[in-house]
Structures are given as structure tokens and as C-alpha cells.
Amino acid sequence: MDSPGQVPLIERFKSVIPFWAHPFVSDIKDVSPYGNCGFRAVAVGLGLTQKHWPDVRQALINEMDTHETFWRLHFDREIDGRYDLWRSELDWFNTVKPAPNTHWFHVPPHGHLVAQTYGCVLINLHGTDNQSYFPTRDGPNQLPDIPVIAIGNVGGNHWIYVKLEGDFPMPWPVSNWARYAQLDALEWQKMEDEVEMEIEHEQAQEQGQVPGPVEGDDILAGYQYL
Length: 226
What we know:
Distance between the termini: 29 Å
Structural class: alpha+beta
Low-confidence stretches: 1-6, 197-203, 210-226
Number of strands: 5
CATH class of the largest domain: Alpha Beta
CATH architecture of the largest domain: Alpha-Beta Complex
Oligomer: single chain
């Protein structure tokens, strides 16, 4: 809660938090900076304290090492050598010195890793450029009660945790997610598509209209995101 006379956090970070999200924001945690803020924000979203940022870094490293073939295939397919680069960025555990920008939390790569490592949906809020990261190997059958974590990027060099509650809209999946996702994981899109189509149908009925079928074979066809 903001103290009397303090600028409300949602007003302070209005350039980060899109207008549609305002009614669903129940809390904002402006974590400590010093190069580990992205990992701190994720830790808070997981129900830990921000001091657990080293645990988040280690968990993402473990995911990359355990499933190296999977991640190397996808990261290096975009640009050769990216797997080693993203892996090295995670390797910083100095609790005294600030992490240099070569060890900061970066999306999309670390966003994909968080979603798969923790079996969650990670939402990146950044003004008008908002993205969702779904797990890349596990689908709804493996993760029936998937949590949602939202973090916001402030000025390109700081991250905050944004707690969203209620039936908030889901931003469009990050563009390269479908290229990474395995068959089970692609069910996330189908499930979300069904939900959005149901909402569209209910809204049309309220207006005395009945929407037609979604056309096209593309899995993204008719996918109603923000």
C-alpha cells in the first residue's frame, strides 16, 4: 500500500502497465535494482522473497543444462552461438557487486526459460508491447493449474513485479513461441483460442448477433489477444 502523499505505484509505472491491466492490478513490487531485478521480480512472482534471485538464476541454468539439446536447437537456430550467450548471462551469483548488463534478465530467451522451468505463464508488460510466455514442452494436460506471473520492464533497464488478479486479458504470445513449442505445449494456444471464442460468442449474443466460424488453418487464426 502507498503511504499518504506518496504517488500511487500504478501512476508511477503507468508507462509500463497498459491501461487494460489497471483494473486487475492488486499490487506492485518495485524490487531492488543492481542488475538482478528481473530475477528478483520473478522470485516475488513465485511467492519467494526477492533475495531468492540466485535460486531463479540457478534453476534456469539447470533447465538449460538438463535440456541442452532442446534449447541449443532453438536458440542457435535463430542466431548461431545464442545458446552459449544466454547461458553465460545467467551465470552471475556475486551478492556484493551489481551484475553488469551482460548478466541481466533478457527477454525473449529468459522469458521462455522461466515459463518452462516453473510451469507458469510469464507476462511481460511494457507499455504497448506486451507479451505472454507459455511453457514450451508441457501443455495443459501436464500443468492443469498453471500460475501466471507478470513483470514489467521500466525504461529498458529495470524490472518490477505486477500482481494481476481476476479475469484479466492475456497478451499475445511472444512471436517465436510457436516455433519453440512442442506438440503438447501448442495446446495452450488451442485452449486460449476456445476461451476467447466463447467470450466473443457471449458478447455477440448480448448484442443480438451470432459470430461466424473462425477461418483459416493457422493455429493463430482468430486468436483474440490484445
